[in-house]
Predict the structure.
Amino acid sequence: MVYMVIYDSNFGAYMCELCMLHYETEELAKKCEAWDRLHDSCNLAIASRSIEAISRRESLNK
């Protein structure tokens, strides 16, 4: 099940219940969860679009 959560104080995000990654859209969170359930792993193409991955790339580019 995908959850809407408060991320970073007041920013809403959708969280994959299985890997706990956060996404800006419910669609991406559902894709992540579907892949995780089917393959018992994360998909790099999907996970790279998570808020955590985007934040990490931005912090490395500073």
Strands lie at 2-7, 11-16, 22-23.
